[in-house]
Write a structure and sequence with these properties.
Blueprint (H helix, E strand, L loop, with lengths): L10 H12 L3 E3 L5 E2 L5 E2 L1 E3 L8 H18 L5 E5 L4 H11 L3 E4 L12 E2 L7 E9 L3 H12 L3 E10 L3 H8 L5 E6 H10 L5 H12 L1 H6 L2
Parallel strand pairs: 5-6, 5-8, 8-9, 9-10
Antiparallel strand pairs: 1-4, 2-3, 6-7
Helix pairs in contact: 1-6, 2-3
Length: about 220
């Protein structure tokens, strides 16, 4: 059953936060922090690829993306997914909207055509980028800039989840675009507290990490 939402929390943001916790796509552990590939230690880990294993969840997320594209970017002509986590969701969104799709690799393929961007770049010019999550924003910005370098107009980036790091907004400034998540760390924390997964005392530690994850790492 859907939990009662905060008055300032949109219905889809609340439900997606609930879904991510229910399927354990988001996990919290303050006692034994997770280690990211960057070397940072984190009290939270998010793996949105798990959403693809649950038809109800992936469909709800797809529909939330579709609604945002239609309302926020009505001039959209195509969808671009970011490899690898957002390729499948990008395809679902593009299929539902009847749009062409591209996807952007983290680096150019080392053989064949050595493509960085996969798909036909001639069939549309105005794209929305789909991400599974945004942390620092670097991989998303890399994708946006790669598409812009091909002469494509990027209207914005949408993600399932955002950690809400202060510098993630700054990362997009150089691209002249913005991003919008379906749900955020704050919303997931509120739901986690409601179901007893997090205590009020956990919020301070998680917020301290959110404000400066690299320094928080050095405290261990």
């Amino acid at each position: 059953m859907l939990l009662e939402k905060r008055k300032d929390m949109p219905v889809e943001s609340h439900k997606i936060a609930e879904y991510l916790l229910k399927i354990k796509a988001v996990k919290f552990n303050l006692d034994d922090p997770f280690k990211w590939s960057s070397g940072w230690q984190s009290p939270i880990y998010c793996d949105n690829r798990l959403t693809l294993s649950y038809p109800e969840v992936r469909t709800y997320i797809r529909d939330a993306f579709v609604e945002k594209v239609r309302k926020k970017y009505p001039e959209t002509e195509g969808i671009a997914g970011v490899a690898t986590g957002a390729i499948a969701q990008g395809a679902l969104v593009a299929q539902e909207l009847g749009f062409p799709m591209l996807y952007v690799r983290s680096k150019a393929k080392g053989h064949g055509m050595q493509n960085l961007i996969e798909g036909d770049r001639e069939v549309a010019t105005k794209y929305v980028v789909i991400e599974d999550l945004i942390s620092t924003g670097r991989s998303s910005v890399h994708a946006v800039q790669a598409l812009q370098d091909e002469g494509l107009e990027i209207l914005g980036t949408l993600s399932i989840f955002s950690y809400g790091f202060p510098h993630s907004n700054q990362a997009f400034i150089s691209t002249g675009t913005s991003f919008s998540p379906l749900t955020t760390l704050q919303e997931v924390m509120e739901v986690a507290k409601k179901i007893g997964y997090l205590k009020e005392s956990d919020f301070e530690a998680i917020r301290a990490w959110q404000q400066d994850p690299e320094s928080w790492n050095r405290s261990f």
